[in-house]
Amino acid sequence: MADDGNANDDLQEDIRRLRTEFDSLRRRVESLEEELEAEADDPSRPESDPETSERERADDRSEGTGAGNAADDEEANEASADHSSLRSSGTARDWELAVGVRWLGIAGAAALVIGVAFFVQLAIEIGLLGPFGRVVVGTIGGLALFAGGRYATTRQGYVRWGRIAAGAGMAVAYLSIYAAYGFEGYREAIGTPLWAVLAALTLLVGVTAVVSIRDGAALVVGEAFLLGYVTAALSIEAATLAVTPVYLLLLAGGLVAIATVEPWSRLVLSSTFATYGVVLLWLVEVEPSAAVLALTAVLTLVIYLAGGYVLRDVTATRFENRRYRVQLIALPLVNAAFGTLLLENAVEDAIPDAAGLGAIVVAILLGGAYVITDRGSVKADGTAAAGSVGALALGIGIAVGTFATTVGALAIVCVGVLAARELEEPGFRYGSHVVAGATGFKLLAVDASELAAFDAAEPMATLTGRPVAFALAIGVFYGLAWWFAADQSTLSEAERRFLPPLEGVYATAATGLAVLVLALELSGLGVSIAWVLLGLALLVAGFTLDVRGLRALAIGVFGLATAKVFLVDTRDLDTVARTLSFLVLGAVLLVASYAYARSRSDVSLELSDALGLGGGEGGDGDLE
After folding, report:
1. 597-617 in b/e burial notation, b at 16+ Cβ within 10 A?
2. What is the mean pLDDT of residues 609-613?
3. Which stretches does UniProt call biased (Basic and acidic residues) (predicted)?
4. How far apart are CA 213 and CA 45, in angstroms?
């Protein structure tokens, strides 16, 4: 919830953002004035290229709003470093420069790394040097290439080429050290212990990451951590409980620590897949105890939730970057999905009767993350709030039976909507929408076939059966439709812009469920009459409450009933039932038509007018 302190912080942030944009605009104006003066002083100067000017304006806009994403920042820096070359060569050579620097460099780096791998294989076949000598030569060569690339980046200004070369050099050095243990012939010849190779690879990754962070090279840092995860996967061969998870936690913690300095959200998000992927491999190979697996899952969850907290610093203008916001939304969701999978696996091994506990633990952690961000100096984590609602519903669904799952999910939907209103956090409402949609799908796919139908001889089974489950959902959905229709002010801008009217969605869903459950519980003539009466009830409610949407739903139900009577009942029912079906339908439709006629101010309801005997316009029967 928002308090005065957060309001003041938001106001200060808006002032800082406006000041930054004003400074950027002033610099742009001064730059344009200087260019105009230079052109006036030098008539021979060629006209500026429109596409180049557009790139310059885009760079200025990026400078004014701030870069939100790490890789985007790096690309912007590289473009700035090569900008003078682009201007001097003209647009006709832009594609040549892009291909020559970027793609030829990447292809060359890949070819070099593959060539080193083939060199290692060739050296084994012809006996060139010894295994230890090959490792040393490859490592030194890779480090030299890394140093040369860094020198080209920092000293000569060739940012893109230098970082490609540095990344290739690191890969060569890593592959050379890895060969000392990863290749069986090297391992037997050198006698390299696993711990020594892990230590050397860790040192290489750590030093490279530190140096690249200092240089602001996000892509090289990403490569370093990627190779770090390869090292973590290699550590599984140690077949111990602690080495791999501790290594992974250190890598994840290192990325979160980096995020406090550089807001590289893409690296943090990508690392979640790498971390949990290696954890799953470790789980399959080592088969750790339930306690160790649960501890690893919880610690990993906490670390990445802390990463989300770090990346939500509201003092930065990077929230204006849409890609950055999407990554912050995805981070807790991916984290919660993998965490739930691991914790449920641990619970299944340790306490089989406590299924669903893992998802509930994840819901509690996500709720705690929202509370901490909401009360801290960062942007509140609405995604964690939404995820907590979904995880709690999932936990209840795993823990209890089919009927109880439906009841619990509906209760969670209502609680989430209330929490969103009281805490002024739409994230809880987003989670409720997702749970409501999942509940509707469950009613159609599971409850309709698995729950017991109405049976007067079995009252207990009926109370926990299909008609009650559907009736509860119908009541809740109609209630939510009324809630959202009466309280539009609490809806967020995103809900108004990107979602259809919520009152219409929930009312339509409730009506559809009502039509379906009547068809399931009744048959033949009963279905036709029930549908007609449902349409009549909706029509009455629509006129009484003056809600056009309900009247439209009534017309839809009448249309469905009419189609059934004319297409099905005439063929499948006997004469008596068919007659009753048509009589009820005709009578109700005439009543509905009369109700619509009374609602129109330009329609006369006087019998004399209907027979063409009236003498005046309108008549006393006209109603507003």
Report:
1. eeeeeeebeeeebeeeeeeee
2. 41
3. 42-63
4. 41
CA distance 610 to 604: 8
Cα–Cα separations (whole angstroms), residue 438 to 27, 276, 327, 344, 405: 52, 26, 24, 20, 11
**Tokens of residue 523, six digits:** 């048959």
Burial of 173 from C-beta contacts in 10 A (0-12 / 13-18 / 19+): buried
Mean pLDDT for the stretch of residues 380-391: 93
What one-letter code names the amino acid at 342?
L
User: Quick one: which of 184, 180, 278, 187 has its CA closest to 225?
Assistant: 278
Write the DSSP string, 236-260.
GGG--SSHHHHHHHHHHHHHHHHHT
Model confidence at 107: pLDDT above 90: no
End-to-end C-alpha distance for the chain, whole angstroms:
45
Spatial distance between the Cα atoms of 56 and 80, rounded to a whole number of angstroms: 9
Nearest to 50 by CA among 85, 14, 90, 110: 90
Per DSSP, the three-state class of 481 is helix
Distance (Å) of CA 129 to CA 89, 132, 308, 390, 438: 47, 8, 49, 60, 64
Dist CA 508 CA 552 (whole Å): 10
The pLDDT mean for the chain works out to 78
Render pLDDT for 165-204 as a digit per residue (tens, 0 to 9). Answer: 777 777 778 877 877 777 666 677 777 787 888 888 888 8
Give yes or no for residue 325 having a pLDDT over 60. Answer: yes
CA–CA dist 279, 200 (Å, integer): 22
Give the separation between CA 240 and CA 288, rounded to whole angstroms.
Answer: 9
The H or E element containing residue 131 is helix 131-154
**Per-range mean pLDDT, top range of 5-19, 62-76, 245-259:** 245-259
